[in-house]
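Structure ticket #2291
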Amino acid sequence: MTYKSNLIQQFSDRGYIHQATNIDALDVLAANHIIPTYIGFDCTADSLHVGSLVQIMMLRILQKSGHKPIVLMGGGTTKVGDPSGRDAARPLLSNHDIETNKNGIKRVFEKYLTFGDGTSDALMVDNADWLNSIQYVKFLRDYGPHFSINRMMAMESVKLRLDREQPLSFLEFNYAILQAYDFLELRRRYGCQLQMGGSDQWGNIVAGIDLTRRVDGQEIFGLTSPLITTSSGTKMGKSASGAIWLNDEKLSSFDFWQFWRNTEDSDVERFLGLFTELPMAEVRRLGALRGADINDAKVILADEATRLCHGKEAAEKAKATAQTTFSDKGMADGLHQVCITTESAAALSVIAALTMVGFAKSNGDARRLIRGGGARVNGSSISDENTIISHADFNLGKVKISAGKKRHALIIIE
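Resolution: structure written out below.
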């Protein structure tokens, strides 16, 4: 479909649109005006992971199309906990934990957006600035009449919990009201006209649109992106070894690069459209590759995604590490590393090494990995559970531990 605005056309072409309110009017608005647009991020961890990358890329495209991104940090809503997509309540965090997490998340956005005072420069705000000072009775009187319990009970986040007969606290039930109020407050303070988010946020976004129309008589818009899963059904943002974090202190640039390099063949074109800035003609060309050639497209995907998140130098180093590790069967320094003393190295079992580098959660888990033929030391398969890594295995003080073909780490003698 052809749109008038570059923004909506890009969103459509690259696969970002799941649902939208009055998209034709939004398209006309985007073609003729700068649209302040927000996405909210609660401070539940000290980094975001790949599951949030679609929303981050949408804000980046929005800014590069001349519009104004607003990053809303959920310093207030994190104290409540979003029930969307959850079977149980989120753990309640202290103010200190929320602040620590917020500072970690801020660093992610500095990689993707340009902040400043210009008309299309990004803005970062915290909903604690207005939610922390709400007077409860006044808030209920001013905004409570605009929310129908019947409609809130039908919201997916509420309905899912009730259908499964799992408890939903009154605290969590209030989340949709607070998010709706965020949209109203952002429109009043910053002229925000569009909220974007994942498809699980549709009910909350529509609630904010309705509240703003009822209270201020203003038309604002909502747009959601599809839930991103792999072709095998895995939720985006997770891997066999854990979450794919966007901060390098949580996950190395090599592991980040390798995550994208391991993309399933059938996901390559879709992920190139969503997670890189390559022209769509090039995305389609790469996505059409078949057989061994599709690996070239996966390397480009890994290069481009890592460059955006960690920078050009880190992407090139990660690629070189991968080539040394997998092509040359070498001992690359870019791998995850664990340091041990000379004394510990003198009696290091393969079982202890596998748990030390995080490839096994327990000794029993390590034994099962060995029995299944998945454990390797310096590229050689290990079949004996009682194998001890000898001093001779440490090449220049390093030994490479592998689990399967894709997970590798170094143990280094300090």
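Closing remark: The mean pLDDT is 89.
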